[in-house]
Amino acid sequence: MAQNTRTTPAGTPTNVTQNHTKGGIGESTLRPDGTLKVTGEFAYSSDMWHEDMLWGQTLRSTVAHAEIENIDISEAVAMPGVYAVLTYDDLPAKMKNYGLEIQDTPVLAHGRVRHHGEPVALVAADHPETARRAAAKIKIDYKELPVVTDEASALAADAPLIHEGRDDHHAGHVPHPNIVHRQPIIRGNVEEARKRADVIVEGEYTFGMQDQAFLGPESGLAVPAEDGGVDLYVATQWLHSDLQQIAPVLGLPPEKVRMTLSGVGGAFGGREDISMQIHACLLALRTGKPVKIVYNRFESFFGHVHRHPAKLYYEHGATKDGKLTHMKCKIVLDGGAYASASPAVVGNASSLSVGPYVIDDVDIEAIALYTNNPPCGAMRGFGAVQACFAYEAQMDKVAAKLGMDPVEFRQLNAMEQGTIMPTGQVVDSPAPVAELLRRVKARPLPPEQQWLAAGEAADVRALPGGLSNTTHGEGVVRGIGYAVGIKNVGFSEGFDDYSTARVRLEVINGEPVAMVHTAMAEVGQGGVTVHAQIARTELGVTQVTIHPADTQVGSAGSTSASRQTYMTGGAVKNTCEAVRAKVLEIGRRKFGSYHPAWATAELLLEGGKVVTDGGEVLADLADVLEGEEIDVELEFRHRPTQAFDLVTGQGNGHVQYTFAAHRAVVEVDTELGLVKVVELATAQDVGKALNMLSVVGQIQGGTTQGLGVAVMEEIIVDPKTAKVRNPSFTDYLIPTILDTPTIPVDVLELADPNAPYGLRGLGEAPTLSSTPAVLAAIRAATGLELNKTPVRPEHLTGTGA
Fold it and tell me: Which is nearest to 299 in space by CA: 235, 217, 233, 355?
């Protein structure tokens, strides 16, 4: 019935109790992009196309450290179909470097290359194969220099300086120019505490370089605009950070670089830095034509940062009754040739190096090095992963030396709400570390050696070695291991971490419709699903449209640090609340005379209606909004944090902590060195599950990435040449469905009163403890110390280093 033919006045109350709006928070609503992705119909960034577009290609260095003596582009320029060849001398602006925090990364190498695969020249051509062949015709004369590959070579008195004449804000407080950043944390008195220890355990640990291994390669399309600017469609994690780095090197004001998020095929930190964005824009502006760049898998290994490899040196002491007395550690992270996110990774590694335990006396030092190895930066877990691997191995060693159960030992020393961190920060929300451990330990164990009962019908996939059919049950030993970790949520150390949301509410075809517009990068985490759920919950509407993410709205920050549901979800919630307040203001103005509840009751929007908290309907939302459109854009910030003191490391550096525990069950062929992970049970406190299906998916995904680095994933860098030896999925292995075990998930919901809906960021925590749990299980099966990731067959058989 048309609104203008109603027989009763619009807004007349009716005594009808409404159900809550379907599809709101707490429900496992389906992802709007889910079906498209699993059917292959989703448009990723690499699928973009533009009429008359050119193809871009990057020429990268073939050596890790060298002077560039000459670049000859003549043959490439002369090739038919080539529209442009660019080198450093063609860059249009005074600013020729970029970087997340320290602008030390050249757009194109000038005078010197600092790592294998560094960009040196660009080509634009009318066909991708033409562009590739033209790039191959560019001749570069290198004079190779000594390479810096580890702590000893980086900090030697005569070490080559990776960056001479540093003037960044970290340069003044590091003891050597090849140290990007150093963060000590001192609390209590370790020397005195050591005297109280009945046992002292030391350990040295090595964590390998892990790749994010997202399946969608780096790609984007730059389109030159009539106003002299450029429109960039790109797969990234942080649109506005990209914009801040891109515009200065193009010599353009930010408003002339318009960015739109295209389909992202995974990220895990590897898209937080610039890859092809600037290169595509440079070529588009030079040629006046749209330019598309898509990396192949080989180039992708050189086109983004990786997880920092690390050396970790730990000492723990404990009394004979099992109480930890002190901890001393040094963490050395290899940041590679450029800073990327290394300073923040150092902050996380140092401040979380104690783990989720109560230790009053600590002496901690974390550093990140400049080397000629590949640049390293953000990856899921961000410094806390490497630390967790080491401190959890230490917990097992201390428990063993005391003759205690490893879980009970952890529970005895577990932090809880009110614990003071080594930085002096009080943990002011639930910290159910002991309970998480109890839950994973209490879970029934899977049957042992399941193939025995099956006899000849046994599935070889259940055995170590799987379909390779190398193991038939002989020499197979079961091992069980436990681990728990602590991760911060959001940006820390005083960073102005905020997110923006714009929400419009209007009537379309007689129905109230909300549109949510943010710059959040949907990289697979399900943020677009949650934003719609929040809008339905707060505005009581069924129809919610998610606007494509772009830079025409304020920044949403990075899709990293487990922050987006907290931060951009918080922004959507706050903005929806402001929209709701305007709706009720309009309703009171239009219909307030019909019912006293408009003035006195707590009013809600549910099911397309304005209702009292008792469920009485006061008006249809469509009637309230008739002739009206509400449009609000607001920023949301979490409570402020502080930078860590550069001498003592004290400070309220983090906004929130999150915890996860794992129990790994493995079966190991001790003769062949083959490992089958049978189960990886996990328990995690998520504060509030806004979408349980997404929560479980994130926990299982993070757990699987931790499994990968435990037993197979590592970028191999030649220590003599600093060249990457395995830049392909043939040689860099990631877990497939055949490698991934059953991952039962136990979810706790203990609300954080400081967070929207009480939620906790959850995407990173399971990546921490899954790795040391698997290593602990393998140690239990083999009796070997195993202080390095990943564990390879030769480590178990004694046939390799």
Answer: 217
